[in-house]
């Protein structure tokens, strides 16, 4: 109908860019077929990294990339013999697999070499996800790497040996990352970029005339840093493909770049990120201010309203937003997409706080969660408030630093669980009980979600306390345990 | 706790801007109280329009603005005596009331003076909502106005007399609009703007020093037209209030304006709008191109994926987006907010089609619905395709104009219901059956959602047909009846 020939079971083996020909191997008939082209689009994709560890070729060790991979995994699970599964790598694919295997009744352990799951996120946000994953019965081991695999006499995997332990495993999923398939292109003299993927300009053209590259094998530009980036995603591939097709057929279209936008469902949580994490922003040399703000995804009185926890990252100098991470059971994707759009146009935090977003109780608070978060971050950028991230508070507690952690929630909330070593003065008593606090010490206020902590901050500042901070996101963003 | 005095049951009766004093009436003790101010913030809100019609003062005729209004309506419904209710005005409040009364088992009729409900929307999109409302058992009467109300011997309303009919009514809700409360301000010499609301600058300052106005009594700027606009909404009021508070306390903040963003739940439909409708854009003098595009709100294979129908409106000259209207059971609010953010930064249609929005199957298609819609509109703006809105096709059918309406769906789909008078050639047969079509006539292709119609358009153009269009949104956007 569309006059397109599709050759399946044919492998492209060589590109001759001078004679404009592609040699392909017919895998059924075992013979070569040479195809001429006017325009060539390379879309060779990427493939999973498989580490050369002892035992890696044992049965029931899978990667997940193709439909065939998925069918093999399903067959293995359907056999009913998988009691224990180990997932190597705590990224998006790893966590999606963890959820779905756990829902099939399998005991799942995720092993991650870094000190956090979900490497694109900051550790504080990733820890909220890790807590949720573990509450759903999945074991998560961080800062530990797989050393080898052991099997039985049938050649099937039975055990995963890590740096610290031995994990029983009837099945292993390797999800430690992918790498771009660039061999065919490189052999034809097509350049790759600093990221290792094929270098293209905004028209998706490679360094060779009439040759385009798109999708997971192609490099892109990060719109926040302006630097080359390789962030392979289906949504990007679809857009790149359209741009290349338009240009290859005589049109003129361009693809400006990406924001590293991601979203993943992990059990009941929606987890999203766009732009730079705080860690990435600092690495890029930005002077960073951030805020963690929990907020309802709908009006608080509307049924089914759920919390989301928003982390916004901004550049102190320009006051432009650099990125966002959002975690929660509520509508995360909407806020990620709002921020993706704002980042595309270089929005400042102030501009985000003034967006005319859609409001009705079934959809948002009268000030949408993202506007509230922008206001909180704006207050910090303007020096109106001084916050401290929960992760920093936890570090300081671990080091037994000398400061007052002040819980300003109600008596009942405090008794229900509070941070170890915290002092308790309910917000409504604070004005009259400031004499109980040592003015020479630093005071860090906290509550459930941060609003009362900020009020307490203001009351103490107005009462002449100099060294006050409030804890961003408070208990809702605290993943370091409570005591009763 | 916050050191704020709140005077309830006190009515502000006069402002003296020279002596900086407000006279208030203590309604309990029936005496005046004069309050001095350094800074004054006027937030007098708005009130419902009540037309001076015969019988307007009968019992059980309500407006819905305050909590007290809501309590009175609830009391009346709870009495169990309301069998028939008439809602005057088919705007957002009217439709929300229609839904909630219908869900209480009351027979509801909505009477609207205009030829469509939801006046901020274009008629074609509003008709999709009207169809849904009527399918849920609510009667909708358009192009008809209320002339008077009749009551029984107890003084309670029994009948609504319109220009064309008599409607039984045990209860009437007036929701024909609101007007800003500006009397207090005007009497003090505070200027109102062209919209009738209090004129303010971006700092929310009125023409009188140290006097601010915020919320439903204050005017704003429409960010697309740059002109004064009065679009009273809670979300805007909250932002204005914050800006005025910051400025009144020595800070410096500004509110740039609004986009008329709205969202409303009507039974199972989510209905949203942002920026200008096509009608409004034409009235403002823009040369307009628009597209109606149905698309899934999630990946098509993901459970619970639902259609949304997107109308995008753009300026032909600058290719900037001017507005969007979205209707559907799927996630409408997310796409409205993406467009609200894009409009704030003057985005072109092309820029929207390249946004790096969050993709995973539970959240979006790999190209989000809004990107698909921007691509379709982009094709029209570039002259690659020529579309025609369903409303225009319906008009031409009504006038029995001579053109071929070509249904390219499958045999089964065609037999399930098609537009009266249409010719049927399935898309996969079209290339070989073009001889059945009269080349001298205009051909308008349609399918279910528009994709196959656009393919058919391309096939016919490639086959040398000159006068071809495809129908935007096709059957999914067609609300004018089908025949089998």
Number of strands of chain A: 27
Biggest sheet descriptor of chain A: 5 strands, parallel
CATH class category name of the largest domain in chain A: Alpha Beta
Structural class of chain A: alpha/beta
For the record, the count of structural domains of chain A works out to 4
Give the C-alpha Rg of chain A. 26 Å
Work out the strand percent of chain A.
Answer: 25-35%
* Chain pair with largest interface: A-B, 61 and 61 residues
Which bin fits the share of residues in helices of chain A? 25-40%
Low-confidence stretches of chain A: none
Strand and helix map with partners:
The structure is a homodimer of 484-residue chains.
Chain A: E1 10-16, E2 21-26, E3 31-36, E4 40-42, E5 46-48, E6 61-63, H1 67-78, E7 84-88, H2 92-102, E8 107-111, H3 123-135, E9 139-141, E10 146-151, E11 157-162, E12 166-168, E13 171-174, E14 178-180, H4 183-187, E15 211-213, E16 220-221, E17 228-229, H5 234-248, E18 262-266, E19 269-275, H6 278-283, E20 288-296, E21 307-315, E22 321-328, H7 332-344, H8 349-353, H9 369-381, E23 387-388, H10 390-398, E24 404-407, H11 411-415, E25 423-424, H12 427-430, E26 443-446, H13 451-462, E27 468-471
Parallel strand pairs in A: 4-15, 6-13, 7-8, 7-13, 8-9, 23-27, 24-25, 24-26, 26-27
Antiparallel strand pairs in A: 1-2, 2-3, 5-14, 10-11, 11-12, 16-17, 18-19, 19-22, 20-21, 21-22
């Amino acid at each position: 109908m569309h006059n397109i020939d599709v050759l399946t079971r044919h492998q492209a083996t060589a590109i001759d860019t001078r004679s404009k020909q592609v040699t392909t191997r017919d895998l059924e008939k075992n013979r070569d077929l040479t195809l001429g082209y006017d325009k060539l689009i390379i879309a060779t994709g990427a493939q999973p990294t498989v580490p050369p560890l002892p035992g890696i070729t044992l049965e029931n060790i899978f990667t997940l990339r193709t439909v065939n991979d998925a069918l093999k995994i399903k067959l293995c699970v359907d056999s009913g013999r998988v009691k224990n599964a180990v997932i190597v790598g705590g990224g998006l694919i790893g966590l999606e697999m963890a959820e779905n295997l756990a829902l099939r009744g399998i005991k799942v352990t995720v092993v991650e070499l870094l000190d956090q799951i979900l490497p694109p996120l900051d550790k504080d946000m990733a820890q909220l996800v890790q807590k949720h994953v573990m509450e759903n019965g999945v074991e998560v081991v961080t800062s530990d790497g797989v050393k080898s695999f052991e099997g039985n006499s049938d050649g099937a995997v039975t055990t995963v040996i890590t740096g610290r332990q031995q994990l029983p495993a009837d099945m292993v999923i390797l999800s430690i990352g992918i790498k771009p398939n660039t061999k065919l292109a490189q052999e034809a003299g097509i350049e790759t970029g600093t990221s290792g993927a094929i270098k293209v300009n905004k028209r998706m053209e490679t360094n060779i005339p009439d040759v385009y590259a798109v999708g997971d094998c192609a490099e892109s530009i990060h719109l926040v840093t302006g630097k080359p980036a390789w962030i392979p995603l289906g949504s990007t591939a679809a857009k790149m493909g359209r741009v290349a097709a338009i240009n290859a057929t005589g049109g003129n279209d361009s693809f400006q770049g990406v924001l590293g936008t991601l979203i993943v469902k992990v059990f009941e949580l929606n987890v999203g990120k766009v732009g730079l994490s705080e860690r990435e922003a600092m690495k890029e040399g930005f002077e960073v201010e951030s805020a963690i703000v929990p907020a309802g995804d709908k009006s608080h009185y509307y049924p089914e309203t759920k919390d989301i926890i928003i982390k916004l990252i901004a550049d102190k100098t320009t006051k432009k937003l650099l990125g966002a991470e959002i975690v929660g059971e509520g509508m995360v994707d909407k806020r990620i997409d709002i921020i993706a759009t704002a980042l595309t146009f270089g929005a400042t935090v102030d501009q985000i706080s003034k967006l005319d977003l859609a409001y009705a109780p079934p959809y948002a608070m009268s000030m949408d969660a993202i506007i509230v978060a922008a206001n909180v971050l704006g207050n910090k950028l303007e020096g109106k408030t001084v916050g401290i991230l929960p992760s920093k508070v936890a570090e300081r507690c671990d080091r037994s630093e000398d400061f007052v952690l002040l819980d300003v929630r109600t008596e009942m909330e405090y008794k229900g669980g509070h941070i170890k070593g915290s002092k308790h003065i309910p917000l409504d008593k604070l004005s009259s009980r400031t004499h109980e606090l040592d003015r020479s010490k630093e005071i860090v206020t906290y509550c459930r979600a941060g609003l009362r902590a900020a009020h307490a901050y203001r009351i103490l500042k107005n009462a002449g306390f100099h060294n006050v901070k409030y804890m961003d996101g408070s208990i809702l963003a605290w993943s370091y345990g409570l005591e009763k």
